[in-house]
Design the sequence.
């Protein structure tokens, strides 16, 4: 597979452990909202270590954007990306991925699983087709929420957050379970998008199916 050599143009930490990368876009490079790509650092010892990341930029943007959770404790690729800055090189493959928009519904995201939804929701906003969509994010604490301000502005009351470890009065502290889904979703005859760790995806998928959602209406990142 052809690898594109691209440079990082800008980086910013947008939470304590999530970093936004603005990256050169190769001429003629295209992808669809919700797709991902394999990236490696273009430096000795790391150029064969590819990891998957979703594009979060609008497809019409002149640059690419990635929003990446840095796992310093693993000493892996994301730790290296945590050290990377403007001017550093990346090796990028071709876009792939099963996540795409199939119509209005509920987006369930755990942690950095929100990234394909950022691309899809930004695209819908641009096309003025956001209506009827709700995003539900689960994170450990409020400080882990990715793009809180932008998503609140974009979706208003249709952006819901749940925290599994928030010890602050006034915040709802719970895991997403059957009761939560029943409370949040009134109509199961619509689309459901799920992205996050495997256990989250299969758990929410099972709950939705048991509550009457059709298997073909549940779209998951594979
Ligand atoms: C299609 C797709 C799209 C993705 N898009 C994004 C994105 O846009 N942004 C983003 O931040 N991430 C995204 N990810 C996740 C990202 O690929 C991983 O976080 C990254 O590969 C971790 O690489 P690493 O070298 O730092 O960690 P590694 O050490 O290589 O870890 C690799 C894998 O091992 C497992 N693992 C290792 N250590 C632990 C641990 N302590 N606890 C739990 N699991 C562990 C995890 O499954 C982890 O993904 C995506 C993943 C896929 C499959």
Sequence:
């Amino acid at each position: 597979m052809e690898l594109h050599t691209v440079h990082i143009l800008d980086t910013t930490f947008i939470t304590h452990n999530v970093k936004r990368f603005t990256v050169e876009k190769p001429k003629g490079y295209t992808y669809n909202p919700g797709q991902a790509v394999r990236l490696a650092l273009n430096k000795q010892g790391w150029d064969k270590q590819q990891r998957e990341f979703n594009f979060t930029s609008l497809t019409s943007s002149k640059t690419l954007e990635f929003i990446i959770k840095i796992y310093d404790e693993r000493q892996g690729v994301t730790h290296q990306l945590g050290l990377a800055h403007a001017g550093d090189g990346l090796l990028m493959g071709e876009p792939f991925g099963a996540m795409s928009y199939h119509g209005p519904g509920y987006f369930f995201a755990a942690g950095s699983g929100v990234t394909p939804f950022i691309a899809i929701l930004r695209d819908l906003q641009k096309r003025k087709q956001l209506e009827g969509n709700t995003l539900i994010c689960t994170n450990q604490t409020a400080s882990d929420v990715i793009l809180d301000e932008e998503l609140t502005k974009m979706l208003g009351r249709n952006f819901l957050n749940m925290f599994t470890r928030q010890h602050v009065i006034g915040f709802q502290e719970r895991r997403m379970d059957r009761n939560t889904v029943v409370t949040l979703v009134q109509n199961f005859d619509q689309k459901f998008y799920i992205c996050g760790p495997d256990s989250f995806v299969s758990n929410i998928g099972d709950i939705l199916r048991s509550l009457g959602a059709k298997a073909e209406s549940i779209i998951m990142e594979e």
